[in-house]
Amino acid sequence: MHTRIAEIHSYLRHNDHSLAVRRILDASLDTADMSLLKEAITVSKMYHEFKTTELPAAFFEAATTLLGKIDHVTERFTYEPKMLASAREISKTYSAGNFSLQPISLQINTGDVLGIVGENGNGKTTLLRCMAGQLALDSGELHFAQLEAPDHYDIKHHLAFIPQRIPRWYGLLKDNLHFSAAISGVKGEENRVMVDFMLERLDLTPYAHLTWNQISSGYRTRFEIARILLQKPRLLILDEPLANLDINAQQSILTDLRFMAKSVHNPMGILLSSQQLHEVEKIADTVLLIKQGTCLFRTGEQEKTASAFVIELETTASRESLLSVLNGQGELQFNGGFYTITSKELAAQALLSQLVAGKISISYFRDITHSTKRFI
Amino acid sequence: MNLKRPLVPGFLKKADEKLLLHKPGIWSTRAHLVVYYGILFMLLLAGICFLEQNDVRDYSTSDSWLGFVIMITIIALTVWLIYLLRFNVFKKYGIIHPFYSLGAFFLYFIATGIIILFTYVHPVVESVRANLAFGDEEIVRDINAMNLKICQLEYNALQQPWNYDTVVRVKDLPVPAVDSKYDEAAYETATTPVKTGPYGYIRMDTTAFDNLVRSADSLVRLNDTMYLHYDEPHLTFIDSYLADEYTKEKILTSFQIYDKALRHPPAADRALISKELGALFNKYDYPGSGRSSADTEINERASVFDKISKKYKVSYIDGNIDHVVSKKYRWSERRMAEYVRLFYYFTLGITLLIFIFRHTTVRTFFLSLLAGVLLTIFTALMMSFSHGDETVFLMWMIMYTILFFVGSTATWTTKKRNVITGIMTNLFVFVVPIFPLLIVALYYALKKDQLSEQGLSTELPNMYIHLLLAEIGGGILFLALLATYIGKVYRRWYALPEN
User: Fold this and answer.
1) Residues B466 and B484 in one domain
2) Which of A33, A111, B150, B388: disulfide with A262, CB 3.0–4.6 Å?
């Protein structure tokens, strides 16, 4: 925790104020101390009030004081990953249609982020819905380690599923948040503080008094995430949560989700599907690539089996120039936008040096040796 | 919270906020808002009804108001449902108490009941206005006074001999036997009139004769077995059914009126009596009644009673008093059960539909409605083809209820959410409140059939109280099942994975 506090001080010093405020909120939540949470909300509000101008000294003073208080309650911080859910050889075939999800096993612990990637119609949503208990399994079994002899209602209370098309909300957005928190046992003053916290945490305070029709689809996703997080689920399942978000918001939401998953106060497992491979790979502990209903690749164990280095490259140089620079040390493929270079001899750094030395102009370069991207 | 609700009073905002933060299950039903706005609306409606320019002596306008208020009731129900359907603790898999379903049903019932009560406001206001305008005893006194004064004024016209019958007591009056086979001739013999004509005798057995002696107003004994039974003239020109049911003073019978007004000539002078009678007529007449412009032409062939009635236009006064009395005693014991049943079954039906909708999927709800309609058509067809009577219908209904119950128990054995078990559960929930009533009704229907076959009277004195107990028992049974079975079935069924 001391490292975390030092990191936040560093963000403040280097003018990464937005990140600093988000981390202050996370750290205050981890103390499970309502008074510290309220102070963090005040700091966040102050930041949002002055973020377009110059932040006042009072903001830095309040943030530093708060960080000092948070630092003093380190004894409350203990984080120990526990198994949340496991699926053993689960499979599903729809009675109508010819799609079939082949047997897949996976395990999620508290604090884990598990990403499911793959092209459309390959079974990502089916797998998520099976995990969420929404679809009956043809074979295999689900086990929720933290529930004793649960019925289906308990399981669905225990986890939360955010579908790609979020069902419409009715009434004021803030009322929905209060309601969701209250039905999960967050009552009274705690409810009020937690809703304010979540609004600040996801930068939604200015929109809280609006209705569903008055906000964009990106904010709808954020509000849905806020609502679900207020229910304190043990397992959060998100189907294409990035679909409606802009690039900045995608990055921000994913990072926030990762931090929240590892929260000491309410650690949870996150299972999410997306087509944004790189973004998901950045934050996920494990990534599963699903193709035609089968788990084709799983980061972690299988990534060590890569037999060649794979590079993705965007350039204006001709194929001939590239082949000349590679000098027979790699194979070249072009998909219309990117070149994919596969080489057994040249690692990414060596290849980059060789390209620079060969005066190849580079507009995009990514090492996808350990990424699921190389299978797509 | 409540940022966009400027019309909500402060205390209600606070209550609403408190419920949202502490009792989301209650908050989501919006029962507190329905109760508050419902009572406000009823007060407003009552105020408008009080301002209505309708004389209490005139016809009741409740029927017209009912049409208008039903429209408002439908709108109110719709608005409430729009708010109610926004939030659902059950469908959001929130923390639910074991008695959640019972509590939710209770709150839906209260909210629906408040809205249904709108339709009762105008009839209540009419009753209050009628009670304020005329006292219970006052009406009876006035009716008696008017009848007496009419008789006093028409003393001469009413001095006519009374009709009479000669009644003879006969021991062992033979009851002709009737063959089990229908024999027209025997039937004719059996029903040969005991009365032998206008100037003949009426032969009566001992029991009937004794009853007559006890109840008749005017009898003249000729000998031990023969009496003259005088039929007193009809002197209650103004009468009103139920007017004296709850009063100490009773409306005078024709005989009592005769005794007081016609046995001796009137003491007071006619002018005074006439003036007093006029004042009483004016008290019970109103400008729009049509009495002042009514036709006074008298048919000479009409009876004395009719002539007098026509002369004084008492039918108008009689009608007006009937209007007042029907408004005053609308909520009397006699009709209260009818109103309570109307309220209870309307409220229960709507509440059950809402409760089912809140605990099932939209698709299953509408399929349940469709199944209900199809079963009704099927049952009607079966009834008509088999010429089934009430007993058969009740048997069908009981069989359906048992079938629905068995179907709903299948929820515990299935691993997938099945629409058939959902429909069965929904239909079971809808009919179970009347299940005890069906059983008791079937019992009495069978008993009546049995009595009827034996040629005995089918009047069963305890039937109505037993049916009432069955109705109450049905409600209690439903509440007990809600707390122990129905809530759990819905919890399991709704959370099951789909196929």
Assistant:
1) yes
2) A111
Phi, psi of B309 (to 5 degrees): -60, -45
The Cα of B402 is separated from the nearest Cα of chain A by a number of Å equal to 27
Give the domain-ending residue among A284, A302, A320: A302
Strand partners, A91: A139
Which residue among B341, B359, B377 closes a domain? B359
Residue B3 lies in a domain: no
Number of structural domains chain B divides into:
4
**Same domain for B186 and B260?**
no
Closest residue in A to B97 (Cα) is A183
Q: What is the pLDDT of residues B320-346, one digit of tens each?
A: 999 999 999 988 887 888 999 999 999
**Is the per-residue pLDDT at B188 higher than 70?**
no
Question: Which residue in A90, A126, A151, A152 has the most chain B C-beta atoms within 10 A of its own C-beta, making it the best mutation to test that interface?
Answer: A152
Q: Quick one: how far is CA A172 from the chain centroid?
A: 27
ipTM of the complex as predicted: 0.83
B191 shares its domain with B324: no
At residue B193, the pLDDT reads 45
Asked if B491 lies within 8 A of A151 by C-beta distance, the reply is: yes
Domain of residue B307 covers 134-160+235-328
- Same domain for B286 and B155, yes or no, is yes
Taking CA atoms, what residue in A is nearest to B488? A153
Give the domain extent around A294.
84-302
CA distance linking residue B355 with residue B102, whole number of Å: 10
Mutate to test the interface with B, among A129, A153, A237 (most CBs of B within 10 A): A153
Q: Which of A170, A182, A183 sits opposite B86 (nearest CB)?
A: A170
Q: Cβ distance B148 to B261 under 8 Å? A: yes
Q: Which residue has the higher pLDDT, A67 or B299?
A: A67
Contact list in A for residue B488 (CB cut-off 8 A) is none
Burial class (CB within 10 angstroms; exposed 0-12, middle 13-18, buried 19+) of B23: middle
Interface mutation target, options B2, B92, B95, chain A, most CBs of A under 10 Å: B92
Find the CB nearest B415 among A136, A176, A187: A136
Sign, Cα dihedral of B337, B340, B342, B348: negative
Q: Is the Cβ of A179 closer than 8 Å to some Cβ of chain B?
A: yes
Residues in chain B: 499
- CATH code assigned at A359: 3.30.70.100
B99 in the same domain as B218: no
Q: Specify the length of chain A in residues.
A: 376
- Location of structure tokens 């659902």: B88
- Indicate whether B3 pLDDT > 60: no
Domain check: are A111 and A228 in the same one? yes
A375 touches chain B (CB under 8 A): no
Q: Is A184 on the interface with B (CB under 8 A)?
A: yes
B4 in any annotated domain: no
Mean pLDDT of chain B: 88
Average pLDDT over every residue of B80-98: 91
Q: pLDDT per residue over B335-389, tens digit each? A: 888 999 999 999 999 999 999 999 999 999 999 999 999 999 999 999 999 888 8
| B170 vs B66 pLDDT, higher one | B66
pLDDT band at A79, cuts 50/70/90? low
| Number of domains into which chain A is organized | 3
C-beta separation of A59 from A24 below 8 A: no
Query: Are both B371 and B454 inside the same structural domain?
Result: yes
Calculate mean pLDDT across residues A356-366. Answer: 86
**CB nearest B92 (choices: A171, A175, A183):** A183
Q: What is the mean pLDDT of residues B307-313?
A: 87
Do the Cβ atoms of B21 and A191 come within 8 Å? yes
Lowest-pLDDT range of A13-27, B112-126, B421-435 = A13-27
Residue A246's alpha-carbon distances to A100, A203, A219, in angstroms, are 32, 15, 10
**Where do the DSSP E strands lie in B119-181?**
163-169
